[in-house]
Write a structure and sequence with these properties.
By secondary structure, the protein is mostly helical. About 65% of the residues lie in helices and about 5% in strands. It has helices at about 5-15, 20-35, 40-50, 60-85, 95-105, 115-135, 145-150, 155-170, 180-185, 200-205, 215-225, 225-240, 250-255, 260, 265-275, and strands spanning about 60, 95, 140, 190, 190-195, 250.
């Protein structure tokens, strides 16, 4: 089973629309029904109490994003336990580089020549990430270190390696920056060039903080880390809930907006956080 960072999983969840058979379509509809079901007032109250760091009865974007960062680390550590159980072949409770690379090779088993070339490139990146995650330098990763390998956003050094790898992969002209079409990996097909969607154009413009039409390493990091997606979703939460326009949300405002929030991008995060805290 392939494992991706939190930022990649979220990106896939937001933009991927797979072609499915009838049975699979029914499963997806069921999943969507579950996800779009409004959270209970009790769940929202529990999350609000965790958001409201200074206990002033209002929640700002900064408070929510601070909570989100803490949650990323907590979820990574929790998921790391099941990952290490799966690929720790000698059962010493740690992950060695050989075990990690062997697991990558097993995932690519049966691939064609092009896929095997990509595997070799990935091994180089994963080796660098492994060493960056190995905080104590003992050549193996404990459960407290392994999270950074599979969830780079929780470790700045690992994240930088991951983002650099993505930049190099997408940067077709080698100038160290990404154009919109490099970022979205658009290519000419049959002599005609595909056009970006309005949403893709808007997302790129939001990422392009200096407005020069290109993404540099720092700007790309916001996307790869998942911060871009979380922040946009929480801005939507504020837009929906903040009825008095003070750029903060009270518990009452949040509860009143729960039906509308259920159909927003914020719902994905709220459910994940509520489930983690068993609310």
């Amino acid at each position: 089973m392939a494992r991706f960072s939190a930022a990649m999983l979220l990106a896939l969840a937001l933009v991927a629309v797979p072609v499915l058979g009838q049975d699979e379509e029914e499963d997806v509809v069921d999943d969507q029904d579950i996800e779009e079901e409004a959270m209970s007032p009790q769940q929202l109250r529990g999350l609000f109490e965790k958001f409201d760091k200074n206990k002033d009865g209002k929640v700002t974007l900064q408070e929510i994003m601070s909570f989100a960062s803490t949650m990323s680390a907590a979820i990574a550590e929790k998921d790391s336990k099941s990952i290490i159980e799966e690929i720790d072949t000698n059962k010493d409770g740690k992950l060695s580089l050989d075990e990690h690379l062997s697991d990558l090779a097993n995932q690519a088993d049966g691939g064609d020549d092009e896929e095997m070339k990509e595997l070799e490139k990935r091994k180089v990146t994963e080796t660098a990430k492994f060493h960056a995650a190995d905080v104590d330098g003992d050549g193996s990763l404990t459960t407290s270190e392994i999270g950074a390998l599979f969830f780079p956003e929780v470790n700045p050094k690992v994240l930088q390696i991951s983002v650099m790898s993505t930049l190099e992969m997408k940067d077709k002209d080698g100038d160290g920056t990404l154009t919109p079409k490099e970022f979205w990996e658009f290519a000419e097909m049959g002599g005609a060039e595909e056009e970006l969607t309005e949403e893709e154009v808007q997302d790129f413009q939001k990422l392009d903080k200096d407005g020069n039409g290109l993404l540099d390493l720092g700007e790309l990091t916001a996307w790869e880390s998942g911060v871009f997606h979380t922040e946009n979703a929480m801005l939507k939460l504020l837009e929906i809930s903040d009825k008095d326009g003070d750029m903060a949300v009270t518990l009452k405002e949040l509860e009143n907006a729960r039906e509308e929030l259920a159909a927003s991008d914020a719902q994905y995060h709220l459910i994940e956080w509520a489930e983690h805290h068993e609310l």
